[in-house]
Amino acid sequence: MMKLHEDASLHGDAPVAAQAGMMNDRRELALVAVERTRMPMVVTDPRQPDAPIVLANQAFLDLTGYSSEEVLGRNCRFLQGPGTSADDVDKIRHGLAEGNDVEVELLNYRKDGSSFVNQLAISPVLADDGTLLYYFGSQKDVTERRRAQLLEDTERRLLMEVDHRAMNAMALVQSIVRLSRGDTPEAYAASIQGRVDALACAHRLLAKRSWTGAQLGELVSVLVASRGDTARVRHDGPDVLLGPRLAQPIALVLNELMENALTHGALSDTEGTVSLQWRCDNGRASLEWREWTSKALSAPKRPGFGIGTIKGVISRQLDGSVKLDWTDRGLHVDLAFDTEGSATQVLD
Ligand SMILES: Cc1cc2nc3c(=O)[nH]c(=O)nc-3n(C[C@H](O)[C@H](O)[C@H](O)COP(=O)(O)O)c2cc1C
């Protein structure tokens, strides 16, 4: 808040002068300084109706693109426009009403219609007895700084998200390496390879849609195709977009079903087939996996990593339901889960 002394017109505090003689020139100097500074400035008169601008410096005219005739006598609100936040304007109005200094960044418009972010600072100018005489306002175009800040924030959020996804993928790979089994080093390597490939496949589909999700049908097609004999796996269902956190766990589950069918189930027999159907109601997907073979099969004596993964992912991670039914003609599986569910991604 500035106080106006009797012997000063605009600046309440005397400018520092090196010699006593120079003090006589301070009014002139103050005016020259206001005029010459690159900081846009205005003075408004609250004692006149609608508090018009009574002084505007060249930097203000340069910033806004108006001439002095076009700004003098008008309230500064003419700089506001469609995108100016009502909250910012309220903040100014209330700040002024309470006699406070006001600082706000708000959207303003130049005469040519282009917009800029205005860092506005307003102070009341008071007489010695405390009477309000004028308001002093300075403006600064901070559009570029604001843009850079926004970009920085977006970049930071993006980096955090990338970090989070990388950690999730690492956690999944760690679990796969830890829990996979194989009778020989080659079998162990192959089982890990298949699972990591399934994760990579989901990753590619997510990247294709900028991580908004992955189409279940697309995921099924690619995973089935990666196992060769696609004609024996019939699949069908509506378009279902799996949320970004679901695609990788579901890819793992589908990979385990395929792997199990190829090693122990219907696809281990040359004539066996699989039917995979799904549907989605109110954000809940249900998958029906049916194996069939003419050869009689026996259920595995103890569930391996594959079955453990299916149960772990669907019931614990996705809070869904799993029903496994071993028949002597192959495995029947019913799965249900929310398509927007938030998976925690770690297997145990
Ligand atoms: C000294 C001074 C400078 C101001 N400069 C600006 C400005 O550059 N841009 C702007 O949008 N509003 C500016 N204002 C705010 C408006 O003049 C007005 O106070 C604000 O819109 C709230 O009042 P209203 O609701 O009557 O419009 C300034 C106000 C004062 C007192």
From TrEMBL:
SUPFAM superfamilies: PYP-like sensor domain (PAS domain)
EC id: 2.7.13.3
Lineage: Bacteria, Pseudomonadati, Pseudomonadota, Alphaproteobacteria, Sphingomonadales
Catalytic activity, reaction form: ATP + protein L-histidine = ADP + protein N-phospho-L-histidine
Protein name in the entry: histidine kinase
Residue stretches making up the PAC domain: 100-154
Protein origin, superkingdom: Bacteria
Keyword list, A-Z: ATP-binding, Chromophore, Flavoprotein, FMN, Kinase, Nucleotide-binding, Phosphoprotein, Photoreceptor protein, Receptor, Repeat, Sensory transduction, Transferase, Virulence
Keyword Kinase recorded: yes
InterPro entries: HATPase_C_sf (IPR036890), PAC (IPR001610), PAS (IPR000014), PAS-assoc_C (IPR000700), PAS-like_dom_sf (IPR035965), Sig_transdc_His_kinase_HWE (IPR011102)
Residue intervals of the PAS domain: 26-75
Enzyme class: transferase
Single annotated GO MF: photoreceptor activity
